[in-house]
Structures are given as structure tokens and as C-alpha cells.
């Protein structure tokens, strides 16, 4: 990759500021494959040995402290000891051991806040792993807990964002969009939660605007985008951080599809570098493009392939490449149309107005029949002398549902 060398030059020194020696060794090995003569490709064995010894010493110290806490049977101390040990393993990138340590906190949690902190730590590990299904499960569990009023907004904003990221990572773009749209604007300034600053370590408020906007464009129709995104008072705060996403959504809602796609295309390379969004950029863009073509074609009975090529340009795009794209959309059931390869036309299926008229008449007749039956039922009740008395309501009762029947009264 063209940016690999620059990325490794930044990553290798940064990795030496952490405790994960294996990551440092992997990076130097990769750099040696790309540029064998690079100075940074030479392994700093002194640092590796020193860091490994420090890690072993710290692990032993924390385990000894934890054993002492268990002997004293102080639940809060045991919980904090497990948390410290889990964080230590996490810093060394020993994710399985970190997960086990955090899970052992559960039996020593004495408040809902402790449980929420534990589940968010597990969500963070599942995001780093990544294990998207477990990340969503942990985040939703944290959000379902009953916390104090001063803690609830902080935990909910973070867990909602993690839920959205989990859905995005697993390719479920519609639920991801709704999750991101529900994130409270306080996420940007909430600070560390469960001793993890999610807005710095996982995703920023700008990321939420981009992730939520792209997932919404890929999964919602124009009316939903208008109601749930552009008119969403909470999400508007995020869109202000990424105004081009707002413009793209506005163009899509205004049926200006080529302008929408042009804006997104200008940011494609940036999004491809995003560690979470990158693997989904091409799929999201393809979904948005396919939706745009379908919506563009709705008011027409036929459109030339050259006109579609101009309306939805691509580098090196020709009517032939557009035809291949349309064939794929038709085969997958996205577009209901036919292609005239001789005249190079995309043709909408003919509408059977006679069948539509018959269908409308039948629906109207069914509705009229239903109304007439209700009226006949009412007439029969009156002729039979049926009297339905309102029951005596008790205090606080607003919706009485029972009725009393007089003796000998029947329906004729």
C-alpha cells in the first residue's frame, strides 16, 4: 500500500510507548519486508527484554495484591483488584486474559454502576478484538441498567455509540444508523467512562456523524432521511461537525443524486483509512449509488444509458459499464426494469391500468360491504331492544370494558 511506509514510521515509535512488545515485533517485521535497510526495521532487543520483565513483574505484583484482597474478603477491594489486573492485561494486548479478569468482577459488583463499568470494559475489548456481536450485547446490557440520574446520560451515550459501532462492524447498516442517530450530543464532552475515554480511544463525535450519516444514506428512503436525520435535533449537533455529510443527505432528499455522490466520492480515500469504516466504505457507497439510480428512474418510463452515465459518472464510465451495473441491480431485485440493448434504453415495466382499476374497484366494494354490515348489525340491535348500560366506574378507572345485559334480551 502506498501509505504503508509512512504509517509504519509513525506506528513503530508509538508502539514503544506501550507495553505490547508483540505488536512492536510485528511492526518491525512488516517494515523489514517493505524496506529492509530502514533503521526502524532493526529490532530494539534491549527495549523488548526490559519491557517484558517489567510486564512480568507488574503481573506478579497485581496477582499478589489480588490474593491478599481475597484473603481479607473485602468485595470492593477484590473488584478493584480484578479491574487493575484486567487493565494491565489489556495494555499488553492479552485480550483473552483481560476479558476473564473483567468478567470475574461481576460477583463483586455491589452497585449498578459497577456492573455498567464492567460491561462497557467488555464492550471495549470486543471492539478491539473485534467481536461485533458481543460488543453489541455488552453495550445494550449497560444501557438497560438502572443508574443514578447523574450517571445515566454518560453511560447511555457511550453504550449507544458502541451499539452503533457493533452493528456497523457486522454490516447491519439500518440498525447501526438508528443507534448512531440516538446518541446524545453530550458524548463529545462526556470524558472517561469506566476509566476509558471512548471519544478518544474508539470514535470521536465527528466519527459518529460520518458513520451515522453514511449508514442512514445506505438504508433509509428520502422521507426517513428528512424526518430521522435532518430534522433530528440531537443528531444535528453531530452533523454540524461534518457539514459535507449534511449537504450530501440534503442533496439526496432533494433528488440531486449526482451532487450527493460527488460529495461522498471526494471523501472516499479518507474514509478508506478509517479503521472501523474502511472495510465497509465500498459496500456503503454501492448501496447509496444503487438507491440513487432507483430513485432517479422512478418518474421515467424509459431513460437512455448515456443519460444515466452522465447523471451517475464514474472514472472511465461508459454506457457499457452502466449497462453491466444495471444488469446486476436487476438480477439482485434492486431495480424493476428491462434493458433494451439495441436502442440502449432502460425501460420501466408496463403498467396494466385495467388491472389496477379492477383492483381498486374490488377494494372499494369490500370497504362498502364492511360498512353496510356494521349498519345492519346496529339496526338488529335496536330492533331487538338490546340495551347496553355503561358500568359503574371505580375511582381511577378510565376505560371500562364490561357491559350489563338485561334479562331475556337477545339479538334478533
From TrEMBL:
Residue ranges of the TM segments: none
Coiled coil (residue ranges): 52-79
GO cellular component: COP9 signalosome; cytoplasm
Pfam family, one: RPN7
Residues covered by the PCI domain: 175-353
Keyword tRNA-binding: no
Recorded superkingdom: Eukaryota
Polar residues composition-biased segments: 391-412
Keyword vocabulary terms for this entry: Coiled coil, Cytoplasm, Nucleus, Signalosome
UniProt subcellular location: Cytoplasm; Nucleus
Region called Disordered, residue ranges: 390-412
PANTHER family recorded: 26S PROTESOME SUBUNIT 6 (PTHR14145), COP9 SIGNALOSOME COMPLEX SUBUNIT 1 (PTHR14145:SF2)
Sequence similarity: Belongs to the CSN1 family.
Name of the featured protein: COP9 signalosome-like protein complex subunit 1
Amino acid at each position: 500500500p502506498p501509505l504503508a511506509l509512512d504509517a509504519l514510521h509513525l506506528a513503530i515509535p508509538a508502539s514503544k510507548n506501550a507495553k505490547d512488545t508483540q505488536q512492536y515485533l510485528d511492526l518491525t517485521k512488516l517494515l523489514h519486508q517493505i524496506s529492509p535497510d530502514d533503521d526502524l526495521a532493526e529490532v530494539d532487543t534491549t527495549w523488548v527484554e526490559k519491557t517484558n520483565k517489567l510486564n512480568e513483574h507488574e503481573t506478579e505484583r497485581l496477582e499478589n495484591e489480588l490474593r491478599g484482597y481475597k484473603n481479607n474478603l473485602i468485595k470492593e477491594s477484590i473488584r478493584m483488584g480484578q479491574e487493575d489486573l484486567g487493565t494491565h492485561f489489556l495494555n499488553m494486548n492479552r485480550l483473552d486474559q483481560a476479558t476473564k479478569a473483567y468478567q470475574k468482577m461481576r460477583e463483586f459488583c455491589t452497585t449498578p454502576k459497577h456492573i455498567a463499568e464492567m460491561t462497557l470494559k467488555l464492550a471495549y475489548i470486543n471492539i478491539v478484538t473485534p467481536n461485533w456481536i458481543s460488543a453489541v450485547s455488552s453495550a445494550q446490557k449497560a444501557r438497560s441498567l438502572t443508574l443514578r440520574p447523574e450517571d445515566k446520560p454518560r453511560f447511555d451515550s457511550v453504550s449507544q455509540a458502541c451499539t452503533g459501532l457493533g452493528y456497523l462492524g457486522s454490516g447491519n447498516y439500518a440498525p447501526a444508523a438508528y443507534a448512531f442517530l440516538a446518541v446524545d450530543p453530550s458524548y463529545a464532552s462526556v470524558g472517561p467512562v469506566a476509566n476509558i475515554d471512548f471519544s478518544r480511544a474508539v470514535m470521536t463525535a465527528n466519527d459518529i456523524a460520518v458513520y451515522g450519516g453514511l449508514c442512514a444514506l445506505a438504508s433509509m428512503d428520502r422521507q426517513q432521511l428528512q424526518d430521522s436525520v435532518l430534522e433530528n435535533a440531537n443528531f444535528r449537533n453531530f452533523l454540524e461537525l461534518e457539514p459535507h455529510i449534511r449537504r450530501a443527505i440534503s442533496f439526496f432528499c432533494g433528488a440531486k443524486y449526482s451532487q450527493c455522490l460527488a460529495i461522498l466520492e471526494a471523501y472516499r480515500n479518507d474514509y478508506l483509512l478509517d479503521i472501523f469504516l474502511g472495510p465497509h466504505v465500498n459496500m456503503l457507497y454501492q448501496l447509496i449509488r444503487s438507491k440513487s439510480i432507483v430513485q432517479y428512474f422512478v418518474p421515467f418510463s424509459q431513460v437512455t444509458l448515456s443519460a444515466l452515465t452522465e447523471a451517475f459518472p464514474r472514472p472511465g464510465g461508459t454506457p457499457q459499464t452502466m449497462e453491466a451495473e444495471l444488469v446486476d441491480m436487476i438480477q439482485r431485485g434492486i431495480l424493476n426494469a428491462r434493458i433494451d440493448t439495441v436502442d440502449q434504453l432502460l425501460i420501466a415495466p408496463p403498467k396494466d391500468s385495467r388491472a389496477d382499476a379492477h383492483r381498486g374497484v374490488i377494494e372499494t366494494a369490500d370497504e362498502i360491504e364492511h360498512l353496510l354490515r356494521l349498519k345492519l348489525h346496529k339496526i338488529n340491535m335496536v330492533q331487538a331492544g338490546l340495551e347496553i348500560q355503561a358500568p359503574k366506574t371505580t375511582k381511577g378507572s378510565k376505560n371500562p370494558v364490561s357491559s350489563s345485559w338485561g334479562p331475556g334480551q337477545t339479538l334478533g
